[in-house]
Fold:
Amino acid sequence: MDESKTKENEGRSTRPPATILVIFGASGDLTSRKLIPGLCNLAEDDYLPENFIVIGSSRSKLSDDDFRAKVYEGVKKYSRRPISPAVWEKFAKRLHYQPCDGEKVGDVEALKGRMEALAAEQPGVRFNYVYYLAMAPQFFGPIASNLKEVGLIEPYAKGARQTSVVVEKPFGHDLESARELNTIIRQSLAEEQIYRIDHYLGKETVQNILVFRFANGIFEPLWNRKYVDHIQISVCEDIGIGTRAAYFDQNGILRDIVQNHVLQMLALLCIEPPNSLSDADSIRDEKAKVLRSIKRMTPEEVRANTVRAQYTKGTVGGEPAVGYLEENGVAPDSKTDSYVALKLEIDNWRWSGVPIYIRAGKRLPKRITEITIFFNKAPDSLFKGRQVGELEHNVLSIQVQPKEGMSLRISSKPPGPRMRVRPVEMDFTYDSSFGVASPEAYERLLLDVMKGDATLFTRNDEIEESWDLLAPIFKEWESSNPPPVYEYEAGTWGPVEADQLINSTKDSWRKL
Ligand code: BG6
Structure:
C-alpha cells in the first residue's frame, strides 16, 4: 500500500474542527519548548484543523512577527524532528500575537476583538475556542471569569460552540487548595469544558497500557492478586531542579511527580475493564475507583511505608552536581523531598495484598521511567538438588521512557548437557517494531482537546482522590515530630532507607 496515501487518509479522518487556540503565558518556556513545537509536528503530519488560528498572548508587548521569530527559535531547538520550511511558513501564517493581561477585563475585551477579526477573515466558518492556560494556578480563576464576562466562554450545551480551557499542573497543593481551585474555575466553566493536563497520559507507552491489557487475551487472567507478587513504578531523572527552585522547593517530588504522573499510571495499570474506550468518562470512572481504593495510611504506616530524601553533592553523568540544599533558590533548612519511595496497596477485590512500590527522584544516575509487574514464582520442587537455586519471578516491564517498549522475563534452559535455569528477556521496542519515533505527549493531547476528547485528561474527582490519599503522608511529614529527611549522593539510586523499605518484604528494587 502507498504509505503516503495512508498517512494522508489518516490525517483527514483525525482532523479536528475549526479552532481558535489562545495560549495564555505565550512568552513562557512551555510555549516555546512544547506547545508550538508540538503544533508544528501536528502540522508536519497534516493533523491540524483545516481552519486553524493560534493566538499567543501574554503581558509582553510583541508584534506578530516578534512572536513568530521567538517561537521559531524554540521549534528549531526543541522539536523532536526538523520541521520543513514549507510547513513552518504555512503554520506561521496561522500564528498571531495579542498582548493581554488576563486579569484585566479590558485586555480580554481587546483579545475578543482580535479573535473576531481573525475569524472574519474566513467567512462562514464557526470556530471552536480552546484556551490554554500555560501559567500558575492563581491566574486560572481570574482569566476564566474575564473570558466568561466578555462572552468568550459559551455555556456547555449540545450544538453550542465548543469552548475548552486547558489547565496545567499543579492543580492545587493539597486536597483543600485543589477543591478551592476547582470551585473557583467551576464558577465560569462546566466540568466538561475543563481539560486538566497530565502529560504522562499523552505518552504512547502509557496509552499502550490499555491496549496491552485489553487487546491481549493472555495477560488479563493473570492481572490480579492471585498471580501478581508485586508491582514497581520508578520515575527516575538525572536532572536536578535547574532554575525551578521557586516552584520545586514549595512542592517536592511527591507533589511534583507522584500525585499526578505516577498515580495516573498506576490507576491505568490497575483499572477494571471500562465500558468503552471511546467515551471519556468510562475510563475516568474506573481510574477514580482505583484511586479511591488505595489504602489511606495511618501515622505509623506513613513512618513504615514512606521514605523521603534529598540529594547531596555528587557526580551525575560524569559532571559534578551540587547538593539540593546548595541549589540556587532553595531554603538552607529546606525539608523538601527530591526523592521519595512509597509502599502502597490497593484495597480492592483484584489487588488486595499486592504491594505496590513507587520511587521517584531527581539527580539519580539516569532518566528512566518504568512500570514493572513481578509475577509469582513457580514452585521449585522439580529443580531441587540440581543447583538451580531459587527460581525467579517472571517480570513484565513497560518502559515508558527513554527506550519505549516492553520486555518479559522468563526462565529458560541455557544450552548444554546440564539442567540449568537462567532468565532471558523477550523484548519489544517501538523503534524496531514500528520504525517511527513516537509523537510527543503534547501533540496527542493538543489534538484531543481540539476534538473535544477528554479521555486522556484528569477529571476533578481523580485529582481529589489523589490528594486525599497523599494527605496522611503530608500530615505526618509536616507534624511537630516528623520522620527524617534522608540523604543520597547525587548520581546514586537513592538512600539506603529506600532499599530497606522494599527489602523488608524480601523484594528489591529492579536494576534500571
Ligand atoms: C513535570 C515535572 O511534570 O514532569 C518535572 O514538573 C519533571 O519536574 C517532568 O522533570 C518530567 O517529565 P518527562 O516527560 O521528562 O518525564
Remarks:
- The chain has 16 helices and 17 strands.
- Residues 253-270 form the longest helix (18 residues).
- The chain has two domains: 3-168, 201-503.
